[in-house]
Amino acid sequence: MLTTTVNGIQLAFSEKSTGPAVLLLHGLTGNRHMFEEETRVLKKYLRVITPDFRGHGDSERSLSYALDDLIEDIVALIEELGLPSLHIIGVSMGSYVAQGVAIRLGDRVKRLVLVATKSTGKTSAMQALFEEHKEELEGLTHNAKILKASKYMYHDLQAVGLWSKEAAKKAEPMTAEQIEAANQALTGFDFTGELSKITAKTLVISGDHDQLNPPEKARETARLIPHATFAEFNQSGHAPNVEQRLLYLDFVLEFLGVERTS
User: Fold this and answer.
1) Rounded to an integer, what distance in angstroms lies between the CA atom of residue 21 and that of residue 105?
2) What is the spatial distance between Cα 88 and Cα 225, in angstroms, rounded to a whole number?
3) Who has the most CB within 10 Å: 7, 183, 194, 203?
4) How does pLDDT run across 182-212, given as a tens digit for each residue?
5) Dihedrals phi, psi of 121, to nearest 5 degrees
6) 2-255 CATH choice from 3.40.50.1820, 3.40.50.2300, 3.30.9.10, 2.40.10.270
């Protein structure tokens, strides 16, 4: 693990291999360890950088921040690492941050992959799902709510469950206050008026069983980004990178222009 201080906050990140850089951005309440399988493959061809957002993983656990702060942290990390150009892959909340970074950095972002994404939201997708099923979830803890609501989020519950547990083992659990702060950071964002500024060639991937960020929201995001293509995975929910990992990696490697050696 490496650390650096950006915008007065200590960020933790991992860095593997050399070559053209690709930045992997995790989802809400997640951490960089969620990308270990992707990293294992991508590091054969690319310099792979996986940060923990502020408030998450091994980064400083702030209790008040906004989505713009997450975006500015990542922009600052890119500058700190001296990256003249890079590719970015963002999953769920990471895809919102990726959109913001791509808007700010323009043609320095060469390829952009947005997974389980949307471009606007009044609340976090998780909060919206909990509200939709509030009677079923009433009285449960946050983690119990996630477990109960997983059937609305994912198609392959077993694969996602194993993946989540492995990543969770490698970071301190988030407190209720930290989870609330992360959810509040996603209140009222809207990139729809700025997506036309993205110059990166963009791939948007959605799972057709995703009720957190349904395919129509991802499709609309792709429609608003110049040079974007949309792919819908029919055996995935909110985690196509886990639920159909081999197909996902095939799509991503081809999109990034990687010449596979094995």
Assistant:
1) 15
2) 15
3) 203
4) 999 999 999 999 999 999 999 999 999 999 9
5) -165, 135
6) 3.40.50.1820
